[in-house]
# Entry
Amino acid sequence: MFKDYQKEKNKLRSIWKVKRKEFFLDFSKDKDTSFIKNFIKAVGCFKNKVIAGYNPINYETDCLNLLRYASKNGSKLALPYVNDEKIIEFREWSENQELIKDSLGILSPSSKNILVPDIIIIPLLCFNKKGVRLGMGLGIYDRSLPFFDLSAKYGLAFSGQETNHIIREDHDFLLDGVITEKKFFNFKGIRN
# Structure
């Protein structure tokens, strides 16, 4: 069965990579305020919180404006650094800081200061209303998120990335919510 799931997930990834790119290219930057409005609904108070995002690649929904907003409102920021064991360390980040490539070649903070986030913002290809996300297939977040059991875990996506057709395996980590430009989906307490 494992190979069947992987084959089906890979088909879905191919479809959703194209769709996400279309959503990204069609998105007007002046709508960033709608993401921030729903980010506020998800986070509530920003003061004295550690908020981790990601450095967007491959047409991922850009979370850097959300992080800038959080920083201006009293949050400390972090970005992922994928170590040699393919586990994420959330390293402290400020906008003017030098970035280095991690083990996946993604630009990440050069800071060695590792933080435990209150909120983790996670990229995705698609999601459903039960908190299941489809990622790029490397399993980096699914392996790493269990180490952050006290952190709230929110996906960031365009509203068009919601789907009913998604496969969840036992190792797929469920999200607490998803922030889109149209609304904040809160999945806490919803489990399949």
About this structure: The mean pLDDT is 92.
